[in-house]
Amino acid sequence: MDRFLYEKSISYQGHLIIPFVRVTVSDRKIYSYMLLSQLGHKGKFHKTENPADLYCSQLEKILEIAQDHLDQHSDIVPQTDSFKCRYTYQNDLIVIYHEGNQYFYDHYKPYSLNNIAAPKLFGSEQDCINWVKTGLDRSETGKVTD
Fold first, then answer.
1. What pLDDT, in 10s, does the model give residues 55-106?
2. Which one of 10, 44, 54, 122 is separated from 18 by 20 to 30 angstroms, measured CA to CA?
3. Residue 30's beta-bridge partner residues?
4. How distant, in Å, are the alpha carbons of 68, 69, 81, 86, 138 from that of 72?
């Protein structure tokens, strides 16, 4: 499996649809997708791979397949878009949330949907973004290359 294509993800019906290349056959990419639910682990499809069990060689079509499946089977009636403030930085996904006057985030690496965010609160969205970017930049410069 290639990395998650967070930069191509879409928010839909209380879920984040995250496409990825499942396999390459004869130089042709076959796409699948993963879902994150705004309900977290309580969501029916949280961290589920392709519950529609359909694959496609076109990125746009796999997103449509996921949307159609959620239209028919979603367990969420979203009041707000929990994934609207999301960013991709160094192929990582950062989702920023706002409650009251505090901001916090979820952080996912390119090959995993395990949240690795630090339990930290921020006074603004920009403070949160800057803190995450600084940490990622610091970890990137600390890597040893051959």
1. 999 999 999 999 999 999 998 888 889 999 999 999 999 999 999 999 999 9
2. 122
3. 23
4. 6, 5, 19, 25, 44
Structure tokens at 114: 């395990």
Residue 16 has pLDDT above 50, yes or no: yes
pLDDT band at residue 144 using 50, 70 and 90 as cut-offs: very low
Q: What is the pTM of this model?
A: 0.91
Q: Look at the block and give the residue holding tokens 């090959």.
A: 111
- Cα–Cα distance for residue pair 111/13, rounded to 1 Å: 24
The pLDDT mean for the chain works out to 93
Sign of the Cα torsion 46, 49, 54, 59 reads positive
Residue 88 host element (H or E): strand 86-89
d(CA 19, CA 35): 9
Beginning with the edge strand found earlier in the chain, give each strand of the sheet holding 86-89 in spatial order.
86-89, 92-99, 102-108
Beta-carbon contacts of 34 under 8 Å, excluding residues fewer than 6 positions away, are 4, 17, 18, 20, 47, 48, 49, 50, 113
